Amino acid sequence: MDTRFAVEQLRAAATDAVRAPSLHNTQPWRFRLRDGGIEVLVDPDRRLPATDPTGWGVRIACGAALFNLRLALAVAGTPATVRLRPYPAEPDVVARLVPDVPRRPTPAEQALHAAIPRRFSNRAPFWPDPVPADARWRLTEAARAEQCWLELVVGVSAVNAFGELARSSHRVLERSPQYRAERQEWVRSTPAPDGIPAASGGPQGEPQDLLPSRGFGGLDRAPGRDFEPEPLVAVLGSPGNTAVDQVVAGQALQRVLLTATDSGLAASMLSQPIEVPSAREQLRLSLGRFGTPQMVLRVGYGQPGWPTPRRDVDEVLDLPVTRS
Ligand SMILES: Cc1cc2nc3c(=O)[nH]c(=O)nc-3n(C[C@H](O)[C@H](O)[C@H](O)COP(=O)(O)O)c2cc1C
Hints:
With about 325 residues, this protein is of the alpha+beta class. The protein is built from nine helices and eleven strands. It has helices spanning about 5-15, 55-75, 105-115, 135-145, 155-175, 175-185, 245-260, 270-275, 275-285, and strands at about 30-35, 35-40, 80-85, 95-100, 150-155, 185-190, 195, 230-240, 265-270, 290-300, 315-320. The strands form three sheets. A five-stranded mixed beta sheet has the order 3-4-2-1-11, with helices on one face. It has a four-stranded antiparallel beta sheet with strand order 5-8-10-9, with helices on both faces. It is globular. Bound molecules: flavin mononucleotide (FMN). The site of flavin mononucleotide (FMN) has 20 residues, from helix 2 and strand 9. Flavin mononucleotide binds near residues 22, 23, 57 and 196. It comes from Micromonospora reichwaldensis.
């Protein structure tokens, strides 16, 4: 058995990996083939110092890309053994993947893999139809399968209390001119390979909204076209909050998102209550869970939309130099 990944395997898997979500669609990752293993790295030039000073968002995004990479390799018949943060002296190397014993992909892996190109952040209002119990169960199991938890915020008063927390964290963040300027830098009004196209940014926020919009351009909103009155809000959390825990949470996030897509559900992310430390702590206490909230999702039945652009895969690959 060949115990090395090949360049073609890396390119094919990285094509799926780059479909992962990232803060403002910054795509803060690189992939390299080294000693027959594939490595996922943080791209330090794509950090958001004002929005993500600790690098939490970068690690969530790289974790999500890593999950896609794992799926792609498994579906191609060579699943990977993964080591997170393999080199203590090189913290920007998020993970190293080496080939495991070849095997056939499972139907579940194939279904999640097929969902990769269909998944996108849907920031538009959802239909009011409730998410059925079996779909909720699939979502929570997806988080559990990646060593994380997904807590559904149920009941009008719990959802209202969460909405208040999310809106107040949004106001706190909006006070920073650097934060607002950084967001503006990543909103795109003309076609671009990264950033958020204005058409994907969702409608303008309005005072009656329960959940805050991030303010990515804001499509005009038809009169009376309000958001669903009782959204399904889900909080994803990890057992700890080290750099490795955040990469684990990124993988769980992507598994939950792909499970949602595969279940015919739409989802969007809202991370304002994660980015404000006091709100994050309040959220943790309100859920009564051990561990740390890492992301909040809004899930439901959405109108059709379209995936956002990505940079060409060759821009994010570091291939070994071949000597002739
Ligand atoms: C760490 C992280 C935080 C995010 N926070 C938000 C958010 O607060 N509001 C939002 O609308 N989208 C948020 N997103 C979604 C990104 O904006 C989105 O993934 C990116 O623009 C790419 O678009 P796509 O998800 O449609 O592929 C977040 C994504 C990540 C990974």
